[in-house]
Amino acid sequence: MEDPVEAVSLRQLRALVSVADSASFTGAAEQLGMSQPSISHLIRRLEAEVGQTLVVRGREISLTDQGRNIADVARRAILAIDAVMRECRDNTSLKTGSVNVAVGHVSAATLLPQILHRFQKKHPEIELTVVDCMVEQIRAKLLSHEADIGLGAVTATDDSKILIEKLWDCGVCLFMRDDHPLARRARIDARVLAELPCIQLNPNAPAWLAISRKLIAANIYPRVEQRVILVSTAVGMIQAGMGVAMMPRIAAVHMPRGIKGIPLCNPELEWPISVVRLANYPQSPAAQAFAAVVRATVREIGAAQGT
């Protein structure tokens, strides 16, 4: 047997609340943009579902005690439903919303500022929170729902829970002071890494592990003297004359005066820029909008750098 509560529709409850508020079937019809017979039909259906009269018909329209009780509860429920539906529609149209972005340190220092500027200019109503982290922590941030989307040098894996969209391979440069003996070269052979004091960024990050494997395969073993996490630390050490550092090519546009980056070759080294999300979890409109801005920004930067 069907539960009467399950059979009651939101339209029936709206009709009852409107009748209660206007004390008139005609007034309720005007409020809801319906015909008076349609309002009467909805009320009769509701009364049939609950098994008793809810509206007293006559020269003056009023509600029974049970009718008033149902109308009072329905009014609060309808207000809550309407509010959440408006919020959902506003999120869909990007009038409101929020997105949490997990960003690896290197991407946060080099790529994120330009993306944030464009995103906030295009979608000023959306609240964006940056979850600054190690690139290898992005997966955990997504799985815990601390972040809605990730950005960084995330390499392809067989992890079925994570969807990785590689946008660009910007390559790797060797950064040094512009008074360094190699600073005038157009390209630098990676074999010199064995001879130079090197500052290594976050050696446990997947992208750096892939680079290390490629160098080892070419029988190249960089002379690492310092290991750091932050780009800013590596830059400070370069400025102090403590060595050179491999960093993604995109970092060149954010370097202070006096430091330059020269592409490495033999072998060519890859630095992927990827957006990452949960594979089987729907993205919010705000997260989709952020991903779209990332794609457009990376595409433009890649075109400007001729890659």
UniProtKB/TrEMBL annotation:
Signal peptide: none annotated. Keywords: DNA-binding, Transcription, Transcription regulation. GO terms for molecular function: DNA binding; DNA-binding transcription factor activity. It comes from the Bacteria. CDD domains: PBP2_LTTR_like_4. GO terms for cellular component: cytosol. Residues 8-64 form the HTH lysR-type domain. Belongs to the LysR transcriptional regulatory family. This is LysR family transcriptional regulator. It comes from Bordetella genomosp. 10.
